[in-house]
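Entries read sequence, tokenised fold; example below:

***
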Amino acid sequence: MGGARAHRPASGTEGVVANAARRRPLPRSFYERDSKVVARALLGAVLECETPDGRASGRIVETEAYLGPSDPASHAAAGLTARTRHLFGRPGSAYVYFIYGVHWCVNAVAGRHGAGTAVLIRGLEPVDGLALMRRRRWVRGGARRKGARAATLDGVGRRDRDLTNGPGKLCAALGIDGRLNGVTLLRPPLTIRAGHDIPDSLVVVSPRIGITRAAELPCRFYVRDSPYVSRTPSHFVTEAFGGESKRSESRNTESRK
């Protein structure tokens, strides 16, 4: 499958890339670069998580770069703490944190060891383990929520495109939680594998979502027209990667969390 087609759903199965071959894990040297460079380069790679329940994976279609202690939107701005110690860890490892008391989020640590720079994985196109993702997102998770309606537990009316189009959603779907904080991304249970190159013509750059500090920085990267990208706020100014700016058309209308 060529890069220009990597984000399209497989025929007859929404949101699933058919017969996706498992490729080699990305090497540590891949992550030993500026976090913005890594964020762009991760588009098209495959995030895979193995648990006792099975394996699930998705192609990365949306990322955000966080720039270290000088970036007020980054956890690294607080310095080295018990919470951020893995953020300041070795490049090519995972930084997993809990947010809003509800969601887990997963980041790939980038740059040099101790820099505190990382890339948040914001959106995936499901590749493997679709049935497992559905159970995790719509059955098990729903059953744990107090007062959840029965209609939310059986997946009725749900779309596969909603499984992983947000950082909290994709962690729930893949079974990523705090137990994976600090693990290497170079081998199971949590691995980022080489995928398909996404050409620059299909990459859009925008400000990061859901932050109030350094909100203007163009540190979010996503695949144009992918239905698995979280919603872009209508007031955002977006630009083609290496190209000119324009006002967001909010084509992607899904919830961002």
In short: Confidence is low (pLDDT under 50) at residues 1-20, 140-153, 249-257. The chain has four helices and eleven strands. Residues 20-199 form a domain with the 3-methyladenine DNA Glycosylase; Chain A fold (CATH 3.10.300.10).
